[in-house]
Amino acid sequence: MAYENILTEIHERVGLVTINRPKALNALNSQTMQEIYDALSAYDANDSIGAMVLTGSEKAFAAGADIKEMMDASAVEMVRRDFIGALYDSIMAINKPVIAAVSGFALGGGCELAMACDMIIASESAVFGQPEINLGVIPGAGGTQRLVRAVGKALAMEVVLNDRRLTAEEAYQFGLVNRVYSTEAYLNEALRIANEIAARAPIAVRLAKEMVNKSFEVSLREGLAQERRNFYFLFSTEDQSEGMQAFAEKRPADWKGH
Ligand code: CAA
Q1: Which ligand 1 atom minimizes the distance to the CA of 143?
Q2: Which residues, including other chains, have CB under 8 Å from residue 53's CB and lie 6 or more apart?
Q3: pLDDT digits (tens, 9 = 90+) for 210-248
Q4: Residue 65 CA: which ligand 1 atom is closest?
């Protein structure tokens, strides 16, 4: 498919999506969000792909939702267009793991997009923030919700109320990002980790992702019950027999994905 604002390429078993609007620091207008979703969905449906990496440029992962696109909109128009909301929600429906490889600015909707992914690998120059308060609005795509769950109330309040920006190292210390690498290395490391995950038992990976994300939405009791059901369910897959047999025979497992 021909995209205007993103680039796509496949690295072994990983689909790479690169946001590519350099003149606007990868600001996320509706078209860009749609393209990101379309590319991720296409990889999600492709059996030769096991995980995805979403990245931007060295200077900007994404500097937020596109302010110029929304500046003149009325509240009714924002609601009618379901501005960014529907797309952020649908990214949550992607089944395969998505790793955000973040360098430079990850602000507003950019930070929210990274947080909507399953892991964040950052370059040492990454900057995370929710500066919407400067525009007279609040985060609209998860910034007040996912950030609290990642870093806790105290820091989230500073970020959301007073535009505190987090360096990559701070984001790592506070648990927002998984790992920090040099600017030269972060993307390759994200691809390496994604390829490692892509080489694992696909159905187990899918359910593992689903259940970790579920922990944000359901009670502990319900989450534990669903986890156990999925654990039992996996005993109906060939990969479970293969994985346990391979362990007993001291050989690598040969995953089939069923
Ligand atoms: N939307 C639209 N255009 C943007 C943009 C955005 N979020 N961020 C940057 N740009 C554009 C600039 O307008 C500029 O375009 P022109 O050259 O045509 O003027 C170009 O990108 C380069 O930006 P700067 O000249 O400002 O670059 P800088 O290096 O001096 O500053 C920056 C970088 C600190 C990131 C600054 O651009 C900035 O503050 N951007 C806005 C960040 C922001 O407020 N994000 C939140 C948006 S609202 C949101 O995301 C809502 C939500 O929750 C979903």
Answers
A1: 53
A2: 11, 14, 15, 16, 17, 98, 99, 100, 101, 187, 190, 191, 194
A3: 999 999 999 999 999 999 999 999 999 999 999 999 999
A4: 50
Q: How far does the centroid of ligand 1 lie from the alpha carbon of residue 150, in Å?
A: 24
- Interval 152-203: pLDDT, tens: 999 999 999 999 999 999 999 999 999 999 999 999 999 999 999 999 999 9
For the annotated catalytic residues, the residue numbers are 65, 109, 112, 132
Using DSSP's 3-state secondary structure scheme, residue 243 falls into: helix
Q: Quickly count: other Cβ atoms within 10 Å of residue 243's Cβ.
A: 17
| Residue nearest ligand 1's atom 30 by CA | 25
Q: How buried is 134 (Cβ within 10 angstroms: 0-12 exposed, 13-18 middle, 19+ buried)?
A: exposed
What 3-state DSSP class applies to 163?
coil
- Cα of 47 from ligand 1 centre, angstroms: 37
Q: What are phi and psi of 72, to 5 degrees?
A: -100, 5
